[in-house]
Structures are given as C-alpha cells and as structure tokens.
C-alpha cells in the first residue's frame, strides 16, 4: 500500500491501538488492515516483531514504485530503515511497516542515529571496525540509494 503522507501508529503492549495523520491515508491503512485480516482470518492489530537494517552497503538504485515488493524485500537491510512485522500473530505477519531514518537507543546510547548505524558507539561493535578497516570505511560512507526521491 503506497501512502502519500506520513502515518503514525500508536502501539501498546504489542498491539496497534490507533493510527493518526492524513484522514484519507489513515482510512486507506485501516481498510487495508481489514481486507488482509479478513482474507486470512487473523488478528489485524498484532505487532509481531521488528528489526533494523545493518548493512551499510545495501543500495536500491531503481525506483521503489517500479516494483514495490522487490524494493521492500531489498531495502530492509539498509540501516536507514527499521522494519515492523504486523497483522497476524506469527512471523513475519502479513503487513510490514518500513520506517525511514529512525533513531534507536540502547541503554540511552544511539546505535542508530537518524538512519545511520553507529557501531562506533559501543566497544564490542567498535572492535569490529578496528579489526576490519574496510568495514569502517563502509560505515563511514554508507549507501544512500534507497529507491525513493530526495
């Protein structure tokens, strides 16, 4: 489901409790969740799990709109995205959210900062950068081609 605007989801206890944003797009999201959950007879409001991309070399040079399925199954590896599995209480669920340029903190320290994975922020991951300089170079200049304009 391609959206024209940013939609916010409110999640409590692993369940979607609401959506907000542009009324038209929120309605389309709700309709999509109803269609998919009815089609498969599943719980539409489950947020099963999430993961963020970790491969700074992952790029997508085509336009996302040309093949949305291929795009979404490629860019979830890029650190600029966090990927949520929803709609159905099993892995991976039937609907995913891709959130762009997220910040994720671990124990109060940003491991992702506006979509940039920061392995230098923790001693155990910084060790990898020190041991393999080519990895440090890749993280210093990550791929930004993600199939989206701007």
Percent strand: 25-35%
Morphology call: globular
Q: Kindly report how far apart the N and C termini lie.
A: 20 Å
Unreliable residue runs: none
**Widest beta sheet: strand line-up:** 3-4-5
The SSE order reads EEHEHEEEEEHH
How would you classify the helix and strand content by structural class? alpha+beta
Radius of gyration (CA) equals: 17 Å
Largest sheet: 3 strands, antiparallel
Task: Give the total of beta strands.
Answer: 8
The mean pLDDT is: 94
Number of helices: 4
Report helical residue fraction: 25-40%
Explain this structure to me?
By secondary structure, the protein is α+β, with helices and mostly antiparallel strands. Helices cover 29% and strands 27% of the residues. It has four helices and eight strands; from the N terminus they run ββαβαβββββαα. The chain has helices at 23-40, 68-75, 123-131, 133-140, and strands at residues 7-12, 15-21, 47-52, 81-86, 95-100, 104-106, 109-113, 116-117. Strands 3-4-5 form a three-stranded antiparallel sheet, with no helix packed on it. A three-stranded antiparallel sheet has the order 6-7-8, with no helix packed on it. It has a two-stranded antiparallel sheet with strand order 1-2. Strand 6 and strand 7 form a beta hairpin. Helix 3 packs across helix 4. The chain starts with 6 loop residues before the first strand and ends in a 10-residue tail after the last helix. The relative contact order is 0.15.
